[in-house]
Design brief:
By secondary structure, this protein is an alpha/beta fold. It has six helices and six strands, in the order βααβαβααβαββ.
């Protein structure tokens, strides 16, 4: 059995301003760094982890480095667990999208990666990581869209919809061909 701890990165200025980040490389803000430190302390005190893998985008990579320093583990980076490519809407908020493309902007081809493509990327990564890390505990520091769509794909009956808070912890287990979620979107370290 492989256990995964899926961590959404700390908050950024673009998160706070409702801007689509996608694959634009936006750093953590001061609050995001504090959130990353809080989740690092939680993970250090509560559980032992063997491996940390992070998205190569700075908001996730920096969150992972803060966690890794506390857990004294190296971080590897993988571009497959980046956020959804938001195409032309990256850097815009809802109001700006409506002004530029109209209220039906979601129906336009703006170069946005599909939910199916995103979930396939996440699924393939987790399947490979489970095989490579049999019987280990693996932290994955990634993005809200990637994590949400991936758990929806793995457990569609349990998660017809999913939304994750910044630095939330979601735990999955894989054994044989089975997946289970034992903790979802937990942010008790931020209270």
């Amino acid at each position: 059995m492989t256990t995964f701890g899926l961590i959404r990165h700390g908050i950024t200025d673009w998160n706070e301003n409702g801007r689509a980040q996608g694959i634009t490389d936006i750093p953590l803000n001061m609050t995001g760094k504090q959130q990353a430190d809080a989740v690092a302390n939680r993970l250090f005190l509560e559980e032992k982890w063997d491996v940390i893998v992070a998205s190569d985008l700075s908001r996730a990579a920096e969150t992972a480095e803060i966690i890794a320093a506390k857990l004294k583990l190296p971080v590897s980076h993988d571009a497959r667990i980046r956020e959804m490519d938001c195409g032309e809407i990256e850097g815009t908020n809802e109001e700006e999208r409506v002004q530029k493309w109209g209220s039906h902007w979601r129906q336009l081809d703006l170069g946005i990666e599909t939910a199916e493509e995103l979930s396939q990327r996440g699924y393939e990564f987790l399947e490979e990581a489970a095989t490579a890390n049999e019987s280990k505990r693996v932290l994955i520091v990634s993005h809200g869209g990637l994590i949400s769509r991936t758990i929806q794909r793995l457990l569609p009956d349990k998660f017809p919809q999913a939304h994750l808070e910044n630095t939330s912890v979601t735990n999955l287990r894989k054994w044989e061909n089975n997946w289970d979620c034992t903790l979802y979107n937990c942010t008790k370290h931020l209270v």
